[in-house]
Known about the structure:
Blueprint (H helix, E strand, L loop, with lengths): L6 H8 L6 E7 L2 E7 L36 H8 L2 E7 L1 H5 L6 E7 L8 H7 L1 H20 L3 H12 L1 H15 L1
Antiparallel strand pairs: 1-2, 3-4
Helix pairs in contact: 4-5
InterPro entries: T6SS_TssB1
Organism: Rubrivivax gelatinosus (Rhodocyclus gelatinosus)
Protein name: Type VI secretion system protein ImpB
Amino acid sequence: MPRYDSIQSRLETVRPPRVRLTYDVQVGDAIEHKELPFVVGVLGDFSGADGGTAAERPRLKDRRFVPVDVDNFDEVLRGIAPSLRLRVADRLSAQVGGPGGELGVELRFERLEDFRPESVVRQVEPLRRLLEARTRLADLRNKMAGNERLEELLVHALREPATLVAIGHDAPAASE
């Protein structure tokens, strides 16, 4: 097992610490300034898993500290594998005349970026489909900007009922 220097000594070479705890010690007639290291320890089961009964989990004294910093945060998060499983009201189906009800959602987090809203949306299937449709519409809008020929074709397609019916028949095949 490799020997690690304390995090405080490594940080001093990289950047000064944000929290500095000092105290003054009187040694003879002189006063010395001593600095205490600032270390935070957090205990807890963060995986989101049930982990069984308290007897099945490792005892507190058998657990080890895991040093976490900006360089290994994603690795530590991947090792913990936090997840969230819940049921939410299905407002998307209800808005389009569907049955509504509840939607089962399971979110997994392996990197810090997985907590961003767009990453969460990609993990929920109905929301992912809406995000893809939004992206396609934004792409179409960007293509139409300054493209008069494409705009004319779209206006023509929207005015012709036969063209709309043909597009409607082709749409399910295109989305598969």
